[in-house]
Amino acid sequence: MSSKSEHDQEMPLVAHLVELRSRILRALLVILLIFIALMPFAQDLYTWVSAPLRAYLPEGATMIATGVASPFLAPFKLTLMLSLFLAVPVILHQVWGFIAPGLYQSEKRIAIPLLISSILLFYIGMAFAFYVVFPIMFGFFASVTPDGVAMMTDIGQYLDFILTLFFAFGVAFEVPVATFLMVWIGILDLQTLRDSRPYVIVGCFVVGMLLTPPDVFSQTLLAIPMWMLFEVGIFAAALVCRSAKHPQNLPSEHL
User: Fold this and answer.
1) CA spacing 20 to 30 A to 30: which of 36, 70, 231, 242?
2) How many whole angstroms separate alpha carbon 218 and alpha carbon 138?
3) Integer Cα distance of 231 and 185 in angstroms
4) Mean pLDDT of the residues in the chain
5) What average pLDDT does range 44-60 have in this prediction?
């Protein structure tokens, strides 16, 4: 009798693990399919991604490959990371499908817009880095290059540099979602967040210093949007809590 009851208790856990495995495999399959589709265009993708730097190289200068396999590995790595970035909606959809059955209906109504917002903000952060930050930053680097020094960047180092910035700006633009969630689930209240603005501003610059290269331009270009997005998160949390008449702390059944 006891073995039967133990078996009944273990079945839900086994079922959850099987579902988790299937969802992970689906996400990996999508990443693989995107990678296969993009691989023939790997060289073109690297040419496109390196355009912000090449635009500021001196006349006649080019990027270089110091590693023997760098001409192949750099475009390969870029294609793999782009496949991962492009698969983010599918990955989050699989995560949502796994956790949604355990949510209340009111939580689902909030979670779906948050999920969509997270995806859009991540891509907007990457686009902001590519179209706004990179031209300003590389233009500054080119302007301060000492006389007699040829500005020729290794393709592998450049790729690591921009991937770090892509990830940093993508994550940083999730600040409104994180701010909203802290208010919605009752970790912090709106007034506490408003009172902590000076500390948040300092924290944004500290995060910018840690996540970006050691130059004041990229740090500032990350810190200021983070602060503005923090304000957007406070506004969204106040608006939703007011319109839904939702308390800033969840009922005891959620705790």
Assistant:
1) 70
2) 10
3) 18
4) 81
5) 89
Amino acid at 27: A
Angle at CA 11, nearest 5°, toward 6 and 15?
160
Residue 64, classed as helix, strand or coil, is strand
Please say whether the beta carbons of 146 and 83 come within 8 A. no
**Contact criterion met (CB below 8 Å) for 52 and 141:** no
- Closest to 212 (Cα-Cα) out of 202, 221, 225: 221
Residue 254, pLDDT score:
41
Q: In 3-state terms, what secondary structure has residue 84?
A: helix
190 contacts 234 by C-beta, under 8 angstroms: yes
DSSP 204-224: HHHHHHHHS-SSHHHHHHHHH
Contact 136, 211 (CB under 8 A): no
CA distance 112 to 107: 9
> CA neighbours within 13 Å on the CB side: how many for 196?
12
Name the nearest CA neighbour of 53 among 125, 127, 156, 142.
142
What are the tens digits of pLDDT across the range 60-93?
A: 778 888 888 888 999 999 999 999 999 988 988 8
